[in-house]
Design brief:
Blueprint lengths: L2 H22 L3 H45 L9 E6 L2 E11 L8 E3 L2 E7 L5 E7 L2 E3 L2 E11 L3 H13 L2 E8 L2 E4 L5 E2 L2 E8 L20 E13 L2 E11 L4 E13 L2 E13 L2 E11 L1 H10 L6 E13 L2 E2 L1 H8 L2 E7 L4 H4 L3
Parallel strand pairs: 1-14
Antiparallel strand pairs: 1-2, 2-7, 3-6, 3-9, 4-5, 4-8, 8-11, 9-10, 12-13, 13-16, 14-15, 14-17, 15-16, 17-18, 17-19
Keywords: Membrane, Transmembrane, Transmembrane helix
InterPro entries: DUF3712, Tag1
C-alpha cells in the first residue's frame, strides 16, 4: 500500500471516530444522576435548608400573622349585647351571636379561651378583663357570653361612658393572647389587638356637620303629657317619652334625673325612674316637677313660634337600687344640650291649667 493510500484511509476514519466520541458523551440527566449518586447528602441538606427557610416561617409566622390580621379587622356584630344589673364596680354582660368565618379559613379549628383586656381607645389603662370562651369554628361559629364584668378602673369606664354620650362614635381596644389550632397545622400563638368601633349618642353636637342627638329626627319624642293636680309624691307632670338608641346594645341604666331650664332660669327637674335602653327605640315614664306657668308663658309670649319652647337639659344623677353608678352618672352629667318642643301638641293636657 502506498503512502498516499495510507493517508486517505486515515482521513476517511476521522469522522467516524469523532461520531463515536460524540455518541459516548453523557446527557444532562445522566450527569445529574451521577452527581446525585455522588453528592446525595448535599442535596438532602439543600432541601432541608429550603424547608427551614421557606416552609417553616410560612407555617409558624405566616399563618399566625394572617389569623391576627383577620381577627383584628373583624367587624364584630354587637346586635343583642345586653348590659344589665349595674353596680358601682361591675355589671353583667350577655350576648349570643353567630360569627362569620372568612379570610381564607375554609377548614375547621379552635380558638382557645383567653383573658381579653379592655381599654379605652384614647388610653392605655385597662378597665376590665373578661374571659372569652372557647370558639370552635368551621363554616361559622357561635359566641356565647354570659358573665359579670368586674371593673378594675372605674374612672376609665367613666371616661368611656362619657365618650359614648358626647361623641358621634367611640372605641374599645381589646387585647389578648389566645392559641389557634387550625386543621393539621401546628398550634399558633396569636397576639390580638382589636379596636372595636361603636356609634355614640353625640349629645353635645361637637361634629358641626351633623345635628346633635336630641334634635335628630325621631331621636327623642314626648308622646304624652299629663298634669298632676294636686302633685303626687312631689311630681306635677307624668309623661311618656321615646328615645332612639343609636347603639345595638341593650343597657339597663336605672334611675336617672335631669335638671331643666329656659333662658337661664330654673324650670325644674325630671326623673326617669327605671330607664332601660332597648335596641332601636325605647319608651320610658318621665316624672317631673316643673314650673308650668313658665312653660305656658314662654309658649305664648316667647320669641319663638307660637307654642314652641326651647328647654336646656343638664344631666344630674344616675343610681340603681339606691346606689350611685359612677360610670353611668359621669355619662349623664356630661349631657348638656337643648331641645325644642311644640306645646301645642299637648294642648289637651294644658288647657285646664
Amino acid at each position: 500500500m502506498s503512502k498516499s493510500d495510507l493517508e486517505n484511509s486515515s482521513d476517511s476514519d476521522a469522522p467516524s471516530n469523532a461520531n463515536a466520541v460524540a455518541a459516548a458523551k453523557p446527557t444532562v440527566w445522566q450527569r445529574f444522576k451521577a452527581s446525585l449518586k455522588r453528592w446525595w447528602w448535599c442535596y438532602v441538606i439543600g432541601v432541608s435548608i429550603v424547608v427551614l427557610v421557606v416552609v417553616l416561617p410560612i407555617v409558624y409566622v405566616g399563618i399566625p400573622h394572617i389569623a391576627n390580621s383577620y381577627i383584628n379587622k373583624y367587624q364584630f356584630d354587637y346586635e343583642g349585647l345586653a348590659i344589665t344589673n349595674p353596680r358601682p364596680t361591675a355589671f353583667h354582660i350577655k350576648q349570643s351571636t353567630k360569627l362569620k368565618i372568612g379570610g381564607g379559613f375554609s377548614g375547621s379549628g379552635t380558638l382557645t379561651p383567653f383573658n381579653a383586656s379592655c381599654k379605652v381607645q384614647s388610653s392605655d389603662e385597662e378597665f376590665a378583663v373578661f374571659t372569652m370562651p372557647t370558639i370552635d369554628f368551621g363554616k361559622g361559629a357561635n359566641l356565647d357570653i354570659d358573665q359579670d364584668l368586674e371593673l378594675s378602673c372605674v374612672d376609665c369606664m367613666s371616661q368611656l361612658a362619657v365618650e359614648a354620650v358626647t361623641n358621634h362614635s367611640f372605641g374599645v381596644l381589646i387585647t389578648g393572647t389566645p392559641y389557634l389550632k387550625y386543621e393539621a397545622l401546628p398550634t399558633a400563638h396569636l397576639n390580638i389587638h382589636m379596636l372595636m368601633h361603636m356609634n355614640g349618642y353625640n349629645f353635645t353636637g361637637e361634629f358641626t356637620e351633623e345635628v346633635y342627638f336630641l334634635n335628630e329626627n325621631g331621636a327623642f319624642n314626648v308622646t304624652s303629657v299629663d298634669l298632676l293636680d294636686p302633685p303626687v309624691d312631689g311630681f306635677n307632670v307624668n309623661a311618656t317619652m321615646t328615645i332612639r338608641n343609636p347603639t345595638p346594645f341593650i343597657i339597663e341604666m336605672g334611675h336617672i334625673t335631669f335638671n331643666l331650664s329656659m333662658g337661664g332660669s330654673d324650670l325644674g327637674y325630671i326623673d326617669l325612674p327605671n330607664l332601660m335602653l332597648q335596641q332601636d327605640v325605647s319608651s320610658s315614664v318621665v316624672l317631673g316637677n316643673l314650673d308650668i306657668s313658665m312653660l305656658v308663658h314662654e309658649a305664648l309670649f316667647g320669641d319663638g313660634e307660637l307654642g314652641e319652647v326651647t328647654i336646656d337639659v343638664k344631666g344630674h344623677s344616675c343610681d340603681y337600687n339606691g346606689l350611685e353608678i359612677p360610670y353611668f352618672a359621669a355619662a349623664i352629667k356630661a349631657i348638656q344640650a337643648s331641645t325644642t318642643l311644640d306645646l301645642l301638641n299637648y294642648a289637651s293636657s294644658l288647657q285646664n291649667f
